[in-house]
Amino acid sequence: MHAQPGVGIRPDTPVDAGAPAMRSAPDPPMAGPDQRHLPATSFRSRRSALSGAQRDTWERRWPELGLSLGDRDSVGGEPLDTRGWFGRAAPLVLEVGCGSGSSTLAMAKQEPGIDVIAVEVYRRGLAQLLCAVDRDRVANIRMIRGNGIEVLQRLIAPGSLIGVRVFFPDPWPKARHHKRRFLQPATMGMIADRLLPGGVLHAATDHPGYAGHIAEAGDGEPRLRRADPGAPLPISVARPTTKYETKAHEAGSTVTELIWVRPE
Ligand SMILES: C[S@@+](CC[C@H](N)C(=O)[O-])C[C@H]1O[C@@H](n2cnc3c(N)ncnc32)[C@H](O)[C@@H]1O
Predict the structure, then answer these.
(1) Annotated binding site for substrate, which residues?
(2) CB under 8 Å to 98, separation ≥6 — which residues?
(3) Is the CB of 120 under 6 A from ligand 1?
(4) Count: domains in the chain
(5) Residue 115: which CATH number?
(6) Which of 28, 117, 121, 168 fits a 20 to 30 Å CA distance from 94?
């Protein structure tokens, strides 16, 4: 079943005491030419019953480490106070569609000086990541349950990110569904706006058609240019191989890695 376009996910947890401060009245989403072409939704709804242990951890740690964007009345248009949320000022990476977070966890451990916000609509995936963060005492990951488009629009300030990661976004292979793809020209524009000068967009896909679509959208965004191979970047682009990627390899797919930089 597909989520209804334009409908936020059902809130499972209100915005909590430990989460960053927000205004109570929501602003309308950012207006502008990009707004008209943003994908209304780019995900399928999935069953997400949690195990008992996951539920316990969710109840214990989500108020501090997570934020649910489903409740439009409790999340305002003010950008996140990420310094308050992480308790420090550090370069910030946003990962959209983290799944169960295995890349998120490994990359955050490799780069303890960088803070990572992982966005996902799938609650069980977030619960898996939350349990791993709790178990391994990882200090530099926070999570948002919600649509990455809305997160970028409403919670991330322009020029605030050192990196955006989008690994294996849903390819929506049927032509009539291409408009649902997360990485589109308008999304590229919004990502470029949220990146700091020198910031990096790192995408990977195993779908050849989507790889071409992403390449065109990124290359068509005037505020981004392809990273020079071998040039130093402010964040790591060394991804661990996830279960999803292993399956893709087994099915004979080739993975395309796409990296852009917002010039200084
Ligand atoms: C194919 S999975 C890849 C998961 C993970 N990145 C990996 O490499 O294993 C794509 C994920 O993106 C999530 N997703 C799709 N559209 C999204 C959106 N607009 N905002 C947040 N998550 C999204 C889906 O729920 C799904 O878990």
Answers:
(1) 174, 206, 242-245
(2) 104, 118, 119, 120, 125, 126, 129, 143, 167
(3) yes
(4) 1
(5) 3.40.50.150
(6) 28
